[in-house]
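Inputs:
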Amino acid sequence: EVQLVESGGGLVQPGGSLRLSCAASGFTFNNYWMHWVRQAPGKGPEWVANIKPDGAEKNYVDSVKGRFTISRDNAKNSLYLQMSSLRVDDTAVYFCGRAQSGALDYWGQGTLVTVSS
Amino acid sequence: DVVLTQSPLSLPVTPGEPASISCRSSQSLLHNNGYNYLAWYLQKPGQSPQLLIYLGSYRASGVPDRFSGSGSGTDFTLKISRVEAEDVAVYYCMQPLLSPVTFGGGTKVEIK
């Protein structure tokens, strides 16, 4: 059974940093593109970043470029999102997702990041 | 960026009746491999989005056959042949073809 479990969320002050993790199981992790998607309270999903199976290619939404870094450790079946210079408008539930056949077919349950003073 | 425009914003439905949601893209989502890179999701409160349809018209595993997707290029439709109470949710379209990946604004399906 495919499972994605996010962790690392919490309350952080503006300008602070946080590292999110996504533990994957039930599939061959190093065969898949992986994504981070966030959802602010009461809003729709917003794509944040993705990473190629070998980690050689990474893409970001403009609003996080230079502040967020996506990475993966295929030996640990884990996906990460290092977030720095956090802003109030980064407050959201952050989901990791697996890409397959032109869609994100599996999503984690999400981890809440709250940026507030 | 590709803008996905969903309509309607809200859709009151009667159980047993059909329902239809539109998703229009600002750019063609038809890849030169012949597939349309458009997916549909439903999201219930407090849950992560669940994949319904991928590549425009292919039902994801375990999705009831009352859900169907159609369309090509820039115009896509999600249809529910007979709405059930459990279908109450917000529905989103998503395109992964052109970076950045974008989502539609959502359509809230509720029971009349």
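The two ends of chain A are 40 Å apart (CA to CA). Flag for discussion at group meeting.
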